[in-house]
Sequence to fold (100 residues):
Amino acid sequence: MGERAARLVLSFQGVLIREYAVDRPLSIGRHAENDIVIDHMGVSGKHASVALEDQAVVLTDLKSTNGTFVNGKRVERAELRPNDWITIGKHILTLKAGQR
Fold:
């Protein structure tokens, strides 16, 4: 049985919107060409990215106007752990661990 990739779970005000597998680099932002589109005024066109680096999931803020937050703390770059939550605009992305 193969491994299942880690996932980012997007929610807004406690309501699940969608899950995204972190099996390749993902872009996050307001513009439609992003992998994870968050259509909200507080989100930059190209806001942040998530990528796998040596088995770790790494979040990078792309010089967004309003910032990217992990567990309530503003970050430019952060290695994520399972159940960490990313705040972008008024949306939350929660990292869920991959499964074997």
